[in-house]
Amino acid sequence: MSDEEDNIPNKSVIIFGRDVSQIPCFRNSFLYGILGGAAFGLAHFMFTSKVAKSANYSVYSFSMITIAYWMRCRYNYSAAKFEAMRIKEVFAERAILEGSLEKDRFSNPNVEVEAVEV
């Protein structure tokens, strides 16, 4: 049974040479856009009974919801990635200064560290 599971090919969609399953926020953006567009188009059709106009509104709302969620998600993703990079740099610097007199600057920046001559 495990041999059959290992031989299953990966079903991924490639657009413009990139695997969309590897793009952060792609899946959620399109899912929210599709659901929002369908709901908005259906609601418009229920109130107006105009098929063509409801289809247009559905496409418009799909586009706007997808773009808006994509921008919000990518901004949050970039902010989190930048913060993780900054924390990693601080930890690396702190590891380098571990055991030296400069390490005391991190714990209390108001205290001046005096150099001790050997």
Automatic annotation (TrEMBL):
Membrane-crossing residue ranges in chain numbering: 30-48, 54-71
Protein's cellular compartments: Mitochondrion inner membrane
Coiled coil spans: none
Protein origin, superkingdom: Eukaryota
Keywords assigned: Membrane, Mitochondrion, Mitochondrion inner membrane, Transmembrane, Transmembrane helix
Main location: mitochondrion
Recorded GO CC terms: mitochondrial inner membrane
Family recorded in the similarity comment: Belongs to the COX20 family.
Name of the featured protein: Cytochrome c oxidase assembly protein COX20, mitochondrial
Native species: Hypothenemus hampei
Lineage summary: Eukaryota, Metazoa, Ecdysozoa, Arthropoda, Hexapoda
